[in-house]
Each structure stands twice: as C-alpha cells, then as structure tokens.
Amino acid sequence: MNQKLTPKQKALAINLDSNIYGTFAEIGAGQETVRHFFRAGGASKTIAKAMSAYDKDFSDAIYGKEPKNRYVTQNRLRKMLRYEVALIEERLCRDNFPGRKFFSYANTVTTINFNKTLKGHGWVGLRFQLDENQDYNEIVLHVKFKENDATLQQETLGSLGVNLIYGAFNYSDNPRKLIESLYDDISTDNVEIDMIDFSGPDFIYVDNRLMSLQLVKNGMTDAVIFNSQGNNMLPADVLYKKNIFAIRGSFRPVTLVNTDMFVKGLEMFKKDWGFADDSETEVLFEITISNLRASGAIDERDFLDRVDVLAKLGYNVIISNFSEYYRLIDYFANYTAGKIGVSMGVNNLLDVFDENYYKNLSGGILEAFGKFFRQDMRVYLYPYKDPETHELLTSNNLKVNDNLKELYKYFKLNNRIVDIKNYNPDYSEIYSREILSKIANHEEGWESQLPFGVAEMIKERGMFGYKEELKLKEFS
C-alpha cells in the first residue's frame, strides 16, 4: 500500500513540475492553500499570482457584483476561476511557455462566527488543463466546516485545497481516487463535502450522480441531492426554508404503488397545510445507502437504473445514509422550519416503532420519536394488503408492541399519523419483488404495473437484468 503524501509533499511535487503554472484567489479565510506552496519551496515556477480579494468593494471591482450581495456562492467561485484563467491566457504568450498547463484555484468561504452559532461553509474549485492544447476542466465542491475554531478551519481548508490541486493533476483518470484523496491528512470529523461537480474534456464520461454517491458511500457527507436532469444540487439551496415532502423506497423499479403513494400523500400534505404555491414545497424521492447495499456491494449500474427511471418521471432524488427515519427528518430540520411530510407504507411504519433500531441512542426510542414526530411533521400512511391473508392493514389495525401502544395512539390522535384514504385499490396487490422477478425471467404482465413509459425504458436500455436474461435465452 502506497503511503499517502502530506500536504507539504504534495505542494512540493506540484512546485517541481515546471509545466504546472497558475493563480490562487482566496476569499474569506486568508491564503491558506497557497501558503503550503510557498512554504514547500520552489514556488516561483508554479505561482503566477496569489491574492485575497477580501474587501467586498475591491472584489466587486475585479469579479463584478453578486445578486443580493451573496459572495459565498457557486456562481461567485466559477466567476473567479474563469476570470483568473482568462487573465493568464491574456497576459502570457503560449509561444514563450511551451508545454505549460495553466490553472486557477479559488475558494470563497466563511468560517465559524464569533458566537459559534454558524459553523461556516464555502466553495472550493479548480479550473485546469492537462494539456496545453486542451480546453479547461473544472472541479467544484461545497464544504461545511465542523471544527469549533476558525484557525483550525483555515488549516483544514488549506490542506483540502492542496489535495484538490494535486489530485486534479495526478488522478483525473480516476475520479473516485481523486475524491478519496481529498481527505488525505484530513478527518471526516473536520469537514464535510456535500456537493461535487466535474466538468470538462477529461471528465466527459463522468456521471456526477456517481460522484455524489461516492461522497455518501465514503462517509464524506450524510446525504446528496440531484435533480431530474442529473445535476448535483446543494442541499442548503434545495431545502432552505422549504416545506418538504419525501418518500423512501428501493424504486427497483418504480411501480404504480410508489406513484400513487406519492401523489395521494402529497395531495393530502398540501391540503392539510393549505399550500397553494408548489414552489413552497420540495419533493424528494429517497434511496438509502443501506438499501443500495442490500445485496452486498453497491451495483452502480443498478443505482443508475433506479435514478434514471425516477428522472424520467421528473423527480428529484436524495441519496442518504439515514437507515432510521428520524435521522432523515432531523436532517431536513437543519435546513428548514417548514412543514415536513413523509409518505410510507405500513411495513415502514412498523419499523419506526421497532425499538431494536434505536439501541445506539442513549434516549432510545423516545429520543428518536422526539426527532421524528416533531411539530409540523406528519406521516401519510399507505395501506398494505397482505399477500397471504389478503387483510388490508391501515393505521387502525396495525399492531405495535404493547409498551408502545399508548405512544402510538397519542401520535395518531394528534394527526402525526394519518391514513391515505383516496388510494387506488387496484394497486393493492402490486409487489415490486414480483415485478423484478418477472422482468428478469421475461414473464408477461409486469408492464401494466409500472407508470407510463417506464416499461419501454426498461426494455430499451436493458435495465434490472432484462437484456442480459434475454441474451441467455436467445443462445440457449
């Protein structure tokens, strides 16, 4: 196993490569990254310019003003990156520097405030080329600081910047390794990366949804969000001050039960709280890492099959490591004081009332319930028809443990748990496992149990084992 290089060693390696040359522009936490390159030695052949446009007026004069005077934004970061690269190209003649690969590194951050009520966050990015005749690539990421001291946060930011620059020039052919290397000499307890975006000619085949998956899989963040176009979204931008409605599932594949549960639950959610404007509410389909690992190692093709179908239906997706529902609700509550609704089936609610899930909490199930059944949060319960007994289970006849019955009654009487009554009874005997089995075995009848257009998509793209099985039959 190769020993990981320290930030100083990485900075020196970059400095010793005479073909790597660029600028550093850092706003908000001093010049923490470029300091490593100055201290490592040999920086004169690497650093074209280092600046800290900390004063807003001076920064505006260089990069232009920002809407609503927001400076710690992705838009600001990309402006900085592109402005600085354009300046290098304008001021240096390529003929005088054959083989030079230009770059611009930038960050715009805010560290922890004096009262320690806001931990701080920021944007970090690199615009770079791997060949002098090639167009530029960009790697942009958002960080949330966890340390309680501004100086420590600055040091972490400096190491992260070095890791990004070194990784870009050494691991661009392996984005997964590049992402892992961002935490070299940094603990995940110190900083969280909750969004990353790769673009440019060297990343043309990179699917940023898979890169988001790596962040959650590697414990770099608890959750990532991307929209129906496949673009990574900053959770704070998506969820801030919004009402949130979520549905969890395996979506392997999406069935008419899933869409009925979602549509009918959302209708009730909006009606209960009197939401007239759809823009007030953010809707998310959640898949957990534990669900993706249900069959062992995460199958990235299977992951993309699921999210591609959800994207076709126009839904935004959240990937999380929240096995327990209360952690999902607690996560949402960090971003909003709005209303929260969760649509789920009876079996999922029974899991919520299973005490075995909360052994790691000092307060046990009561602590979990305090976070889950918070004020202005409701569960919209979809009925379940037992395939053996054909009994229809709702909130009125499901059975929880005797010691939790009174708690259950309390939540039900206070409208924390409400039944979805206008569900479609024709869907009550649709089971995703049966559909998946039929798809793999090329049996008939499953197509009509999926939303419009999904069956055709599965067949055309060979999703969920469809094409592979067909080939086996053709050659048998």
Outline the low-pLDDT stretches: none
Helix count from the secondary structure assignment = 18
Biggest sheet: strand arrangement: 8-7-11-10-9-12-13-16
Q: Number of domains in the coordinates?
A: 2
Instruction: Give the C-level CATH assignment of the largest domain.
Output: Alpha Beta
Name given to the CATH architecture of the largest domain: Alpha-Beta Complex
Strand pairing plus helix content: what structural class? alpha/beta
CATH superfamily of the largest domain: CinA-like
The rough form would be described as: elongated
CA radius of gyration: 25 Å
Distance, first to last CA = 44 Å
SS elements, strand count: 16
Which fold name corresponds to the CATH topology of the largest domain? Maf protein
Mean pLDDT: 91
List keywords for this structure.
single chain, 476 residues, alpha/beta, Maf protein, Rossmann fold, 2 domains, eight-stranded mixed β-sheet, six-stranded mixed β-sheet, 16 strands, 38% helix, 20% strand, elongated, nucleotidyltransferase activity, transferase, Nicotinate-nucleotide adenylyltransferase
